[in-house]
């Protein structure tokens, strides 16, 4: 059985109004990462990720270093990665 890992994240910078959530959902779906993301009132994007370790780390790298084409990422903060027994989410979604 494949091990599944989870972490939460918050991305700071110019990440609202630049299709950051849409590109995050696209990237997560390409990697098979489940979870969610949403805009916050203070201009950041927060969310949760669940996946096997390799795609989870690839998604974290994307959130920290790439993002959407017009985003400017200043910082990305992740909770410690922890192993979980089962997925909590069926897919990756944008919370509006």
TrEMBL record:
- Which Gene3D superfamilies does the UniProt entry name for this protein? 3.30.70.100
Q: Does the keyword section mention Hydrolase? A: yes
* Catalytic residues, chain numbering: 21, 39
UniProt keywords, alphabetically: Hydrolase
Reported EC number(s) for this entry are 3.6.1.7
Q: What is the name attached to this protein's record?
A: acylphosphatase
In alphabetical order, the GO MF annotations are: acylphosphatase activity
Q: Which family does it belong to?
A: Belongs to the acylphosphatase family.
Q: Name one Pfam family in it.
A: Acylphosphatase
Q: Domain Acylphosphatase-like: where?
A: 6-96
User: Per its UniProt entry, what is the enzyme's top EC class, as one word?
Assistant: hydrolase
User: What is this enzyme's catalytic activity, as reactions?
Assistant: an acyl phosphate + H2O = a carboxylate + phosphate + H(+)
In terms of InterPro entries, this protein maps to: Acylphosphatase, Acylphosphatase-like_dom, Acylphosphatase-like_dom_sf, Acylphosphatase_CS
